[in-house]
Amino acid sequence: MLSVLVFVAAFVLSPLSFAHPLSHHALSCADIRLPHIPGAKVIDVQYDEKRNHTVPETLPFLPETVSGLNICEVIVTLSHPGANDKVSVQVWLPIGTWNGRFVGTGGQGWAAGLGDLALAPFAAEGFAVASTDAGLPYNPESPQAWALDTSGHVNIGLLTNFASRSVHDLAVVGKAVTASYYKNAANHSYWYGCSTGGRQGLVEAQKYPDDFDGILAGAPAIYWPEYVVAELWPQAVMNEAQVYPSQCELKWFTQTAIDACDELDGVKDGIINDPSKCKYNPSTAVGSKIKCDGKTTTVSTEVAEIVRKIWEGPGSLYGLPRWSGLTLGAPLDSLANTTVSHGTHVGNTFFVPEGWIRYFVEADPDFDFSKVGYKDFDYIFQRSVAKYESLIGSDNPNLSGFQKSNGKLLMWHGLSDQLIFPQDSARYYQEVDKYGGRSSNVDDYLRLFLAPGVDHCGAGTTPGAIPSDPFGALISWVENGTAPEALSAVTPATAREQFTRKICRYPLVEKYRGHGKVDSAESFDCVEECEA
Ligand SMILES: *[C@@H]1O[C@H](CO)[C@@H](O)[C@H](O)[C@H]1NC(C)=O
Ligand SMILES: *[C@@H]1O[C@H](CO)[C@@H](O)[C@H](O)[C@H]1NC(C)=O
Ligand SMILES: *[C@@H]1O[C@H](CO)[C@@H](O)[C@H](O)[C@H]1NC(C)=O
Ligand SMILES: *[C@@H]1O[C@H](CO)[C@@H](O)[C@H](O)[C@H]1NC(C)=O
Ligand SMILES: *[C@@H]1O[C@H](CO)[C@@H](O)[C@H](O)[C@H]1NC(C)=O
Description:
Pfam family, one: Tannase
Signal peptide: 1-19
Helix content: 25-40%
Strand content: 15-25%
Keywords: Calcium, Disulfide bond, Hydrolase, Metal-binding, Serine esterase, Signal
Bound molecules: 2-acetamido-2-deoxy-beta-D-glucopyranose
Number of helices: 14
Structural class: alpha/beta
Protein name: Carboxylic ester hydrolase
Family: Belongs to the tannase family.
Shape: globular
Radius of gyration: 24 Å
């Protein structure tokens, strides 16, 4: 009965009062017409009006508690015929405070979406916002619960959801629910994601170019079949040598490289501006005495060789597939993780390559990583690419559809990313540029920002200045036509040295003017590389 009244009321309101935020109070959470979702069937819809709602701080994804939310929550459950899946799309609609925008939010690691943790900050700012689980049990650290079906075969339906299908469902459902609730389509639609979420954003630009006006893709997990196997490279190097350096030794090498190359850019700030220019050679450290765990250790030839190979990445030198290595300055603790077990150092495989290789490439839950040397690495890499490139590569450089629909794609990546290689983002930018050819100016629809000294998704464990508001820059680009030249950035509160910087639009680099405070972005310009 109530929903009928609201329906009638919507028709008698004048257009003027209709646009007034107060009219939102008349809307009912349950009065939502569902969209047609191509290739999927809606199996359930849940509505819930939440008043003064709180989402408590949950590290690492939600650093601060969000409270006082007044939202209408709509959860749409759908299934793709033949996939035997049950996908949930969760939409939060701010009551009375809508800013006219819709945002789709992405996942991290093995999760396609972060649910409440991603929705809360956006809803608090007045955005209609959505997240999807892609039909996967939530676990950012492992795909174990869904990767294989009951007969031990790779669950291609769910992998397809994780790779691309569910991102589009989220866009279709989220935008339709938003339009139905507010009786007005969103003025602008955006994507917000980092890591897996960054990859999902690029998939949208490539495959569903009309879904979003603006896409923010941080540290995107693109070239997935290649880069995820390349994440195993440091462990393969240590296995091959049968030498597992301590984390203290590895940390020493990272800091020594930073000290050696810090001032190449003319400023001593504990940051290597362009790691590709840093020619620090680990073999020069052989024989150095370093203090580790209260003891003095001498750097050996073997350990120096391991560090050199990790930085170089797998390459033609070894007759192996060529891929990016970790940048100088990136922490080695994740991909070259070692711990002490029964008195000796052992290697630990990072959970993304572990889950990928164990379940999807090998389909062997008992796969033993401790034996993977160069030969196995080569074999795994080739198989990963052959089996999955078309399914989850997420690296199609053809963005002509996105360009045509006047979309804007803002990519950014930390240059000390310890998990996903920033060189791969630069590679994708160059591939898009090349694909577009002379007739298209890539900077009209794609801009990339590489942030010196910043870790994965700007978590703040490294000393670089982190872009403060790349999403705001994207909104200005879309709604105001202000294409970002540089992102303003500030060091994390935990950093020893505090400063602000400009993160320049690739391929420009930041250069100190030679005068002025070095802790202020005002003393820097974005210049062409050759002048730097
Ligand atoms: C909202 O919830 C908080 C607790 O999170 C409570 O202290 C406050 O009184 C509530 N406000 C209203 C208007 O109910
Ligand atoms: C959407 O855009 C129109 C036209 O610019 C504007 O009048 C309206 O206020 C916007 N809607 C919201 C909810 O901001
Ligand atoms: C290193 O491996 C250990 C043991 O698996 C794990 O507890 C730790 O979190 C890992 N460290 C990093 C930085 O990934
Ligand atoms: C590139 O993408 C556009 C738009 O999606 C499509 O029409 C065109 O066929 C694609 N080009 C190639 C070579 O696949
Ligand atoms: C909008 O663009 C103008 C210049 O075209 C600029 O001065 C202004 O700061 C921009 N506003 C926002 C919010 O981006």
